[in-house]
Fold each of these.
Amino acid sequence: MHEIVDLRSDTLTLPTPAMRQAMAEAEVGDDVWEEDPTVKRLEAMAAKRFGKEAGLFVVSGTMGNLVGVLSHTEPGQEIILDADAHIYHYEVAGAARIGGLQTRPLQTERGFPSPEQVRSAIRPINLHVPATGLVCLENTHNRHGGTVCSPEEIAAVGQVAHAHGVPVHLDGARIFNAAVVLKREVREFAREADSVQFCLSKGLGAPAGSLLVGSRDYVARARRWRKRLGGGLRQVGVLAAPGIVALTTMVDRLAEDHDNARLLAEGLSQLPGIRLDLERVQTNIVIFQVDPPGGAEALVRETTLRKVKIHQINPTSIRLVTHKDVDREDIHRALEVFRELCRGWPRSSK
Ligand code: TLP
């Protein structure tokens, strides 16, 4: 039980005592000179786990995606992604502003374009059109509510892209949530992806950092991009060390977050004024619609006053994310608060 139930994001997780100890004791060196042993250890560990040749530590998921995309593409190309992708919505148009890339958003049901959608979005070789430079996938899918796609679905899209000579980047900020729920290894999801970005500082609880993994040549290009963007850090083993703790000890417990999200979603789905599709609640994210006009703002305001923090993602939708710093009791408390606030609202037609 915590003083405040913070359901705004799994980015709010605090480092564990073991992480803090690892930070204090980390062996470090200058990572721009590739002399930080702890960073090298984390990069090698990540590459191995994802079945790739090399890894690169970056400060954030946003930098991982940006460096990831830039290292595959040339200005003037087009990248294909889901219309609700994080790269499209929440990365300040980095691909356009810095990469000179045009985005080609595809409308999808669960956040994952089908092989047919990708096939028809890939540009023909023609004087008038931009060349398709990259296909980006996201798993789990944030704005679709933590939905999961299987390694086979990724492979099917990957094969279409590769048949046209187009590489694939996977935004796997929460790929370990997908792996835990489907009981698969992350390397299976990575097999047909040329690069994967994953975050240490979401459900895994590390204070900062992401890894970008791919082939040796690709990671060498990414290292240059990271330096160009000012992301070459020096004695950054102090951040890699808690990342190693995250990767080695924090993955399996994600199942608990998924169970808590389900409990929360089931409770919410009973409430008047709330519309929630339980089938979409597959991992640690719960998105629901609030039907009474102004209801979403009111919920944010009133839950905060009752020490439950939630996040509004558009005028009528709320997102809740479970994580290691929210326990079962906290979920029950949050549900109590929602019950109190929705009392008297008209029932939504589900
Ligand atoms: N997502 C954050 C916000 O930016 C919305 C959150 O609270 O969920 N890919 C995906 C799928 C993400 O959800 C995020 C973070 C990122 C990339 C970027 O990671 P950071 O925040 O480390 O730059």
Note: The CA atoms of residues 5 and 226 lie 36 Å apart.
Amino acid sequence: MYRTMRFLLVLSVAMAGLSAASYFVLNRLTRSWFEKDLRLRTDLAVSSARRSLTEAIRVEPSKLAFVLDDITHDERIMGAAACGLSGQTLAHTNAFPSEFSCTAVVARIRREGAEGNDYWSMVSAMPLGDVHLGAARLVDGEESLGWILLVHDLSSWSRRENTTGGILIGALFILALAAAVVTIFAARFSKRDWLVDLQRALAGDEPGEFQPLVRDVRALADRLASERETEVRAGPWNAERLRSALRHHLHGERIVVLANREPYIHQRLGSEITVQHPASGLVTALEPIMRACSGVWVAHGSGSADRETVDVKNHVRVPPGEESYVLRRVWLSEEEEDGYYYGFSNEGLWPLCHLAHARPIFGARDWEQYVSVNERFAEAVSEEVDSDDPIVLVQDYHFALAPRMIRKRLPRATILTFWHVPWPNAERIGICPWREELISGMLGSSILGFHTQQHCNNFIDSVDAFMESRIDRETRAVVQGSRRTLVRPYPISIEWPVRWVETQASVAECRMSVRRDLGLPADTLLGVGVDRLDYTKGVEERLAAVDELLTRHEGFRGRFVFVQLAAPSRTKIDRYRELNERVESLTTSINRKWGHEGYQPIVLLRSHHEPSSVFRYYRAADVCYVSSLHDGMNLVAKEFVAARDDEQGVLVLSQFTGAARELTEALIVNPYDLQQASEALAVALNMPAAEQRERMRSMRRLLAEFNVYRWAGRMLVDAAELRRRERMVGRLSAFRVT
Ligand code: F6P
């Protein structure tokens, strides 16, 4: 009702304005027509009386008044006068207004430069209404005798003008009102009809024009309602909720994870066997899932004591002391490892997928090893499943071919493949000599997950460019024959709360102990970086940014120290060895430049650090700088936030990480821009505690909700839905009459 009133009000105001404008225009138009009409009348009156007027002026001036009286018999002519050329009054009728003396009128005609014209006129307001004064030249042959002035009464015309104006405004207003009412009714009725149609269509009564829209609306409404209901009912995502989702949606089926890196590496140190947690984002994310869901993790047994710790089936129950799931180790010869892991995976695919200016190397021998090792792992997976339609989680670029190989062995398996690194654009993928094989292998998956929508789009474009298939953009799927692969973004995360934080000392103690261990004064401002030593991590750019900070901000010299925890990685590859050397020499030169007795701005700790040690550094730091040149997600950024239950500390984060899309309260930088990055470090080190708290609190809230249980849960629920649909289709096709 209120909206209708408002509409009417706006319309009325608009129409009032329109009426006024129309009235004004119309009035001017009719007035000009009327004036033309008066001129004609004046000319007519003067020309029809010209002979009598001329004769009276020339011969009998006493008759002139009578002739003028004759002219004024027309009721609308109020009076008439005859004036000489120099303005003398020759005669006038009695009613001729005294305001228009011949002297004044002829003077005005001259003033206006109209003395050469045949006609002149003016409108004047008189006490009893407007009058029109027209002056027509009286000519006899070639000679001009003077002016005949005729005064017309305009009051009747003004009355008519006012009446017409009123009628016009009224008519326009009524018209506008009628139009508004018709519009409102038409809109109401058509909307009602539309809604009735839509409601009927939603209820499934009526196929027709709304059906495609209805299908989308219904699907969206169902999904939102069920998501909302589930979210509200189930509470936050955690290990328990993931377990129950698995029970509910997948009837507690055993999960088999295939990943190259094992979550626990047994290493022999003399007579001792130690257990190492590898520096790997993949392990950080997947391990809590396996703890929650149990099952089997199939991986390369890479530790020096791995063989000693498995049973005959190459199984070892992990985590040590908890034994909640099985680790199945697969053994690789040195040749296999060189070709599959160092060669094709890390000299080919890794630089192909990361935009870090390293040229990929594709060797045919490496490719052969990659194919055969993928087969070996696919075989190991098929040995570990306990049904013919198991759930298999294939992880990362080491296993692009495995999904199709597993599918060949287990056609009914639900295969979820997650690509932990970026997927570049189609043009870049196109340089790989085995691009079709890679994509085809991945399309053996039921669901293919990437960190971001951008990576999904890139993958779909690559399929479009290189494969025979149909892309169903509506359901975001690639269809090949009767098989479909859903391509979806699932941004990976970390467990929440992180178990490594629970066993940590307080932040104050961590600050103190780290500074003490490094031999630093207690008030040292501390920055931290945590990475595998990999050229994609931007470690050189990071150290250069510290150098720039000390150059631009004198106040931090002697007060700021950056600790880089650098886990050696893939050191068999030249590029990694060279990186090690470059990082070391850069550290030395920066320390030489700014260091002095008792002060070294960069502390490079080049060794493997166990998670509890890493978390102690996170808690001790004032700032954490993640400077990746390209990174699928980067879980170090998320771990730093998780470590700071004191809500202090600032994250400086590269814009080229997947994490930058989620952790928007970090200081986001371009790591190549050393000025910008060093300024961000300065801002971070000077940031007031309240602002640190606000930013950290908001990022922690986000991670608490979007944790790795949610990541896995969403993938598994999607997989369950797909499974249900596929089973249904399977049953239906069994009934098909052939
Ligand atoms: O980023 C993808 C990833 O698989 C991470 O899980 C891990 O950090 C790295 O790549 C693999 O490292 P590695 O070669 O040591 O297993």
Note: The mean pLDDT is 90.
